[in-house]
Amino acid sequence: xxxxxxxxxxxxxxxxxxxxxxxxxxxxxxxxxxxxxxxxxxxxxxxxxxxxxxxxxxxxxxxxxxxxxxxxxxxxxxxxxxxxxxxxxxxxxxxxxxxxxxxxxxxxxxxxxxxxxxxxxxxxxxxxxxxxxxxxxxxxxxxxxxxxxxxxxxxxxxxxxxxxxxxxxxxxxxxxxxxxxxxxxxxxxxxxxxxxxxxxxxxxxxxxxxxxxxxxxxxxxxxxxxxxxxxxxxxxxxxxxxxxxxxxxxxxxxxxxxxxxxxxxxxxxxxxxx
Length: 274
Prior knowledge:
By secondary structure, this protein is mostly helical. It has helices at about 5-25, 40-55, 60, 65-70, 80-95, 110-120, 125-175, 185-235, 240-245, 250-260, 260-274, and strands at about 1-5, 75.
């Protein structure tokens, strides 16, 4: 289940608030209006969009809004619940056989888990199950990389277009040195385009790309646990051994909670139900 990743909007908002505070506290009275330059905005945003349209195909461009949306979402990966699920599946598989696990799949929302269990029920060899599921992880990683590439390239192009705007402003300024009234506006274009491009790259695009990469790493880690769980259930491992094996993937604080009885209580409940 996906939830709002509140840290992304908080981080972006905090960054802009700090910029505004810096502008107000160090300004000479011009305030925000001194940092608003329409021509600079057009150069950076227009040039950035044009570069992305040239670099990527239409199908990739259409994915941009979905990729940006993912930066504001957080997958709720509860490792303890995942381990409990596989303990329950292992209990039932040992008690009633692998075919009985098909009845458990109605309560499972994760398609990756369902696929692994169905492969196990079909009697596929463990090595082949691992190979198939790892291939799916690789394909997922490739899809995520292609989507993230748009944001990464935006982070590269934004400062470059800021520099292009700076060059435009400098050329205009040098061509009109005889008219002192044009020096200020042209210098503003030169400096503000670099400012806009740098802020967009380092406050928005590059951090978002980093967050998306972290989410991919978390997803891969989660799916690797699922693979271990599927193989453990198929091989008929003792639920307690499977608990210890999958528990090795838990962070230290979760392991401490497990020692306090979080998973052990579940195991005892399962045994009583048998």
